[in-house]
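User: Once you have settled down, look closely at the record that follows, taking as long as you need, and be ready to discuss the fold:
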Amino acid sequence: MAEPSFIDQSKLRFREGEVIFRKGEMAQQMYIILSGKVRLYVSEEPKGDWAEELSKGDFFGEGSLLEALPRQHTALSLEDSDLIAINRGTFLRMIRQNPEVSVKMMQRLVQRHRELGERVEALDAARPAKAPGAPVANLVSVLSGKPHPILAHGSLIGRFDPTTGIHPDIDLTEEDHNLSVSRRHARILCEHGRYFLLEEPGVANGTFVRGERIQSGEPRELKPGDRVGFGMVVLFFEKT
């Protein structure tokens, strides 16, 4: 891919176990492997999950030549390895002098993209499917840490009614030691992935969002992390 003199000037030796670069670092050079093996890890430390293992003839770190972005992986030399370091200026000269370089690089990038797509599809296939209507949001109790799932079509919030034997969708009976929550206190409605809290008529002890009491019959949109109060019971709204 380049003249011998260029290889001699740009060749670097990395010992087994030596980090070539870390995720998050800014750089303006890529590497071609002359000998040895390199593994690309997904985290800043060279351990745990890894994305790719490369050997003679492979290249990596090419993203730094195309955009001024931080490294996306941590590169570790698995054995004594000889690499060629190529900066942006040298890379552009190589392409002008030998267009075959850019063709080979595009072929390799397409292959990597295809392999990545196959890995993602395999992970999706192995992941348990979420059942229809499964909750995607919760109210989490500040007192107990218990999550109360919000149903996809919305949920009624209140306390168990011993007269009728009816439990609301989100039953705060065990959370409400002071009996401050009404039997039918409020509703959470879901519309196109957005959640709205609506107080039921006749509630005595109030409904609160971020410490502010909302007016009965006037819906208030909830955002992840919002602190929500029903009488004296406090919960946090979260989306999963």
